[in-house]
Amino acid sequence: MLEITCNDRLGKKVRVKCNPDDTIGDLKKLIAAQTGTRYDKIVLKKWYTIYKDNIKLSDCPLSLLTKMSKASADKIEEFINDKLKEDLKYYEQHLKQLSEETIEYTQLKNQINTLKNDLPGKSFKTQVDIGSNFFMQAKVPSKDKILVNVGLNVFIEFTLEEAEKYVQMKINILEKQSDVVRDEVCKIKANIKLCLLALGDKTRLIKGVES
User: What Pfam families does UniProt report for this protein, alphabetically (predicted)?
Assistant: First the structure.
């Protein structure tokens, strides 16, 4: 791993980490990504020597060229494995749970709409699973009220209108929570990519974290 410091005419410094096998053209692209300057507008030179895009960094004496110590690389590896990947695992599991809850409440909302709009009369017949995929025919005498699990297996009786409002509120809350957790997942993945880029491990950068 190499760290290269480049100075522009105004004295502004840019530090870029790259590999000895990278070319001057690759270095220009990294500098362009940091500075916002167009790639084709960047000229790298030392004194009166201009470096061409096809030259490897290992073949030219740039202003500052330092190797990352093995101890620093080990610390970054440890941070990725012990901190970032564990956090990523936790947030992904949490996001999965929120998605499953959202699906359940969405299904309940559809069932409430079916009870309100598609079933004529006040009573209806259905089948109840009594275990091991055995079903018994049952009759619901009234569809005006239903029991809703509000958490910790606590059930509250609602009218259909009350249940519909409660379910929609829960869906909105779960979607907002999912957005927050999803942002955290994206941040952690971005940090993992940055750490892998610092290590210069291009293979792991491609395979380690999916966008």
Answer: Prefoldin (PF02996)
pLDDT digits over 71-130, tens only?
566 777 888 889 899 999 999 999 999 999 999 999 999 988 888 887 666 777 888 888
Q: Tokens 């610390």 correspond to what residue?
A: 75
On the CB side of 145, CA atoms within 13 Å amount to 5
- Tell me which fold the domain 1-59 belongs to: Ubiquitin-like (UB roll) (3.10.20)
Ramachandran bin of 151, using left for φ above 0, alpha for ψ from -120 to 50, beta for the remaining angles: left
The domain spans of the chain are: 1-59, 61-210
* Per-residue pLDDT tens over the stretch 142-159: 778 888 988 888 999 999
pTM: 0.56
Helices (DSSP H) in 118-210: which residue ranges?
Answer: 160-199, 202-207
Pick the CATH number of 61-210 from 3.10.129.10, 2.40.128.20, 1.10.260.40, 1.10.287.370: 1.10.287.370
| Cβ(109)–Cβ(164) below 8 Å | yes
Q: How confident is the model at residue 204 (pLDDT cuts 50, 70, 90)?
A: very low
